[in-house]
């Protein structure tokens, strides 16, 4: 006997049918697996504004991966001595988790490990509380910081061979991954200039590449115990001399050789802010998943989107899988970025700013998606 669907049921199911036919295929045809944003975690006073920003701006812009630089801006229970003043609570982090889940955004926390344990004239929390972890305790933080300086001080590092340092930092990693319900963790690892210091009783005379690779491998293996995946910045894995890229976006202290010593499961966030350098091809050839990262120059972001699309179009199936996509990076506080975003005008689209660059990246990705 032939039956038909009642009219009222048709009215009920029709919107879901439209969603399935028109919206889901568009999502499935996205050019890149990662359309990302990396930004500092918001202060408690701006949390509600940030949640709204995710809902109303980031999700509609096509962002599907959000890396939040948390560091010590969380009320750690395992290591309360490492909390910043007025840190995010567990309940507040859950608000971030909820809004990202709602919008299909992967939320990844970041805590800087190894390097970036100080900034300018400020010693960060880890070395302030545990000075014994300092790779270069003989280098004092100046009252007035200047670069360049006689000590070669950019950012301090912790000693990767100190016997107690991982007991502390892995407590932070485990807790932050759990509260963020994360399947990945970003460890930073960029711009590490203090390593294998000649005055360190544990590291002196050692190969910087082996020290760097050993630290990445140790962090990676620890995360694997909880089925979490490691992200790092890629600059220390590029040979500055051979590439001509220079000391900031590449390594001049031989850590670049670690690229052949670390697990292939590590995801490389390959940042280049002045030019769309083709180093994602290098990392994909080495077997790593890689994301190209921009900051302030809109044209660089546009060229990175085009470059990643061209690489994928011309890659073997093996390499194509490694080319994950693009990510914009913000190095000002989250509240500053949100305010600048609100004040940004269409006429400002070609100016050099993190907002203009972000909008250029997302627009370029959308344009590619529309061509599919």
Automatic annotation (TrEMBL):
InterPro entries: GH, Glyco_hydro_20_cat, HEXDC-like. It holds the Pfam family Glyco_hydro_20. Coiled coil: none annotated. Keywords: Hydrolase. Residues 86-332 form the Glycoside hydrolase family 20 catalytic domain. Belongs to the glycosyl hydrolase 20 family. This is Family 20 glycosylhydrolase. It comes from Lutimonas vermicola.
